[in-house]
Write a structure and sequence with these properties.
Order of helices and strands: HHH
Largest sheet: none
Strand content: under 5%
Helix content: over 70%
Distance between the termini: 50 Å
Shape: elongated
Oligomer: single chain
């Protein structure tokens, strides 16, 4: 099960990347889009980390902690997807208005 540690590291790197890119951008709308992408990466990180811990320990306590991590990871990911679709729509509206 080497895929889970790779996914953990990659999602954490993507999360850090988008958080750094937020500071480099000056447009508030694109900052919100990048923040939404960072939330999706954070949700993936939390979810995969929880699954990996359960596969490593396989105890009842690890199962409970995994379920908590999955819940918060799914909430972060879903919130990020909702924000991303909303702000992408706003970005496209603004781009069409500027033409």
């Amino acid at each position: 099960m080497v895929i889970f540690p790779i996914m953990i590291v990659l999602s954490f790197i993507v999360y850090i990347y988008y958080k750094v890119m937020i500071m480099r951008d000056h447009d508030p709308l694109t900052q919100e889009i990048k923040n939404a992408k960072a939330r999706i990466a954070l949700g993936i990180f939390i979810s995969v980390f929880g699954i990996n811990q359960y596969l490593f320990y396989q105890t009842q306590l690890a199962l409970f902690i995994t379920l908590v991590f999955l819940f918060f990871g799914i909430v972060q990911g879903y919130g990020g997807i909702k924000r991303l679709t909303h702000y992408r729509g706003e970005y496209h509206k603004r781009a069409q208005a500027n033409q």
